[in-house]
Write a structure and sequence with these properties.
By secondary structure, the chain is an alpha+beta fold. The chain has helices at 2-10, 39-61, 86-93, 95-100, 131-153, and strands at residues 66-70, 76-80, 101-106, 109-111, 121-127, 156-159, 162-163, 166-167, 170-172. A 5-stranded mixed beta sheet has the order 2-1-5-3-4, sandwiched between helices. A two-stranded antiparallel ribbon has the order 6-9. The longest helix has 23 residues, at 39-61. The chain is flat, with a radius of gyration of 21 Å. The model is unreliable at 11-22 (pLDDT under 50).
């Protein structure tokens, strides 16, 4: 983790990407507003891609060893460290479980469904019907809403947590859209 933090600190924070104009979709009714894509979007995407590649390189170097995955009912599945994911285990159990899967819990810690398992583990597969599954789903949905607001309306995000029955985002809209949105 220290290595990742060090490499993160080295990333240039003042790079600027050219802004891009939005385009209206054909046949969608009213024309889409023409906005300049905020410069920070490209910068944020570039930082993500750099960090993602650092993580992928780290995972590629990790030793592959057989692991045992223990499910809540006590049954076990075999896997390979740094390759097998919670989604792989879910697919091996049932395609419908994999389609419903929102998040996993590995040794009591929430874990992305596509993140490789690192060693022997106790695994829970959580869908929307679980409290943690709902919270993660609403949290992710808030991010999707936030990005849509940024990209399509040029909004700036303020606060947007998941709440008991959904999610929201407080946003600041550009002046030209202030009355229409």
């Amino acid at each position: 983790m220290a290595e990742l933090a060090e490499q993160t600190a080295k990333l240039a924070l003042n790079d600027k990407a050219p802004a891009k104009a939005g385009k209206a979709k054909k046949g969608s009714g009213a024309p889409a507003p023409q906005i300049e894509r905020p410069e920070f979007i490209e910068h944020r995407n570039r930082i993500f891609e750099e960090l993602y590649q650092i993580q992928q390189d780290k995972v590629a170097k990790m030793p592959r060893e057989p692991i045992v995955v223990t499910l809540p009912d006590g049954s076990t599945r075999e896997g390979m460290s740094w390759e097998t994911t919670p989604m792989d285990i879910a697919n091996g159990i049932s395609k419908s479980l994999a389609k419903r899967l929102v998040i996993a819990k590995v040794n009591g810690v929430l874990w992305d469904t596509l993140r490789p398992l690192e060693g022997n583990t106790n695994l829970e597969l959580l869908d929307f019907e679980t409290e943690e599954g709902k919270t993660v789903y609403w949290h992710s949905s808030a991010h999707v809403l936030g990005e849509a607001c940024e990209l399509h309306f040029g909004c700036h995000l303020c606060n947007g947590p998941p709440v008991e029955n959904g999610f929201y985002y407080d946003i600041s809209v550009p002046e030209e859209f202030g009355r229409a949105v």
